Request: fold
Amino acid sequence: MTSVAKPIDTRRFAEQLRARAIDVAHGRVLISRLAGSGQEIDLTLPANCNGYGRVRHFRLATAEGWPANPLPIAPACRALGIAPVPEVMTALVFQNAACAWRCWYCFVPEELLKADLSHSEWFTATELVDLYRQIPDVPRIIDLSGGSPDLVPEWTPWMMRALIDAGLAETTYLWTDDNLSTTYLFDELAPADLALIHSYRNYGRVCCIKGFDARSFSFNTRAASRDYERQFKILRRVLALGLDVYGYVTLTSPHDDGIAQGVADLMDRLQAIDPNFPLRVVPLRIQIFTPVEQRLLRDEARERSLVVQEEAIAAWTSELERRFSSDLRALHICDVPLRTRVA
Reply:
């Protein structure tokens, strides 16, 4: 069974990690070395970019009973003028080397989440873009992943400027993951950086909600339950920026009571931020990658949560059908209008 541990103090831990994961003065971000890592065995293709990048195959198709996942395929195709939307699209992924949460189902091993210089290296955005340009059959999407990119929000505008300088801003799509664990996007960026993020045409951001209630959130992340509510406060601020924002949600929980009510409450929270935002959210079915296998051993709660997610996705689908018309549900995800942004 999972041992009972003191919850992560997100604010304190994030502050410590940020200090080790970004060099603002020299415009550098600490990037995980994937080559030789515990994550490498799960890569479809060998690590590239001298071992610091990887190609990810994003696929529309998911599992039976789960909705298709058009992220980031559909918004990338819309921005880049690609039609029809393909079933599979590749992206070059860079992972920043720090995260304040420890989601048990994360496909990234812990050594790549601690801002550990023995498993990472410093890069400027220009250096990352130079590595990107050297890839044969280069993907049209660059995914800034992690780790937790919202620990180092400067990375996004730095990459935008590097892509502009390289003449690649119109031919690539930039995608940023955000787990809504910090407010550094608002605390650390200069107004000019926020203005650039807002005006940059080929950009999308996906925010991940970790669970459908405070219990499942804490179980999933090891963070204090109060940070579940904080995720929604941060999401409201992100949407208020007027960006092209989407969502993921993970529905694992060790508790099989109150699933339907928990999912309904989650939907209420999302609609309180924007009435249509649930239609821009994709539930992610947790799969077992190599780093996760050891975390599942002799852990009945985590094994049970994989069953609970199947019940939760049925509740999610039911709530969507109850709350939204068939016409709204039929919209492409990037056509779903938001109050802060009309697609």
